[in-house]
Amino acid sequence: MCELFGLSSSAPVGMTYALHEFATHGGLVHRNKSGWGIAYRQDRDAILIKEPSPASDSVWVRFIESHPISTGTAIAHVRYATAGEPSYENTHPFTRELGGRSHVFAHNGSLHNIWQQLPLPPGGFQPIGETDSEYAFCVLLERLRPMWREPEKPPALDDRLAVVAEIAAVLRELGAANFLYSDGDILIAHAHKRAWEEEGGFSDPRPPGLSTLALTGADLTARGLHVDSAGADIFMTAIASVPITEDGWKPLPEGTIVALCQGREVARLRM
Q1: Fewest CB within a 10 Å sphere: which of 31, 76, 135, 181?
Q2: Exposed / middle / buried, residue 232 (Cβ in 10 Å: 0-12, 13-18, 19+)
Q3: Averaged pLDDT in 10-residue chunks for the chain of 271 residues
Q4: Is 261 annotated as catalytic?
Q5: 3-state secondary structure of 161
Q6: pTM for the full model?
């Protein structure tokens, strides 16, 4: 099953991405062999690195683990393909420009018949690849488009969350709909349910779909992941499909939307 990881911090932190736990899911043990990617936010833009091959075999992963990239928000994904062949255009995260800034999206789950259930208007956002995930991202951006008019002035948080909640409710009717979305101002997580890899195959989807960990003035270190707070009093919140350290993680209830800004939770909806 696909794996998601997100990070929001109160100041830029140095993040080394070996994510050995993700690399394990990316082909060393588990079945996630279809690609991996990570987006590091840089103000209104994002550095995107991804490839459609196992993270466990990647020269790029080895490079990133030894070259910290400073960021205040990051979204990472390891893919097990269920819709769309392993290819660059089908690899998460996905990015699009809206309102003069890069928007970033990654999804875990399968959304059945989304192409028929949520038609996109001609001339608007269109997917480049074949995945249900990228298509869902385009649907979300189409709904958000009317309110994004000025790059320097994001729409009201309540208005953005109302649209995200509306789309998330529809996606849950189509299948497992865990996702991370960043608009350069906030990081939004929607927790639903996920299939768990068990002996003999995958289980039926069940919660939790995502878990969170909040830290203050401490580094985040897991196998292959290190987020360096440089000893500063920095607030960080991490989000992951599966807890990547042993202590402190809290599962998000099914149907929960969490908005993070500079490491702190600024809004929560439960549907």
Answers
A1: 31
A2: exposed
A3: 85 75 48 75 94 74 80 86 71 95 94 96 95 97 94 91 98 96 97 76 79 91 78 89 87 97 96 84
A4: no
A5: helix
A6: 0.91
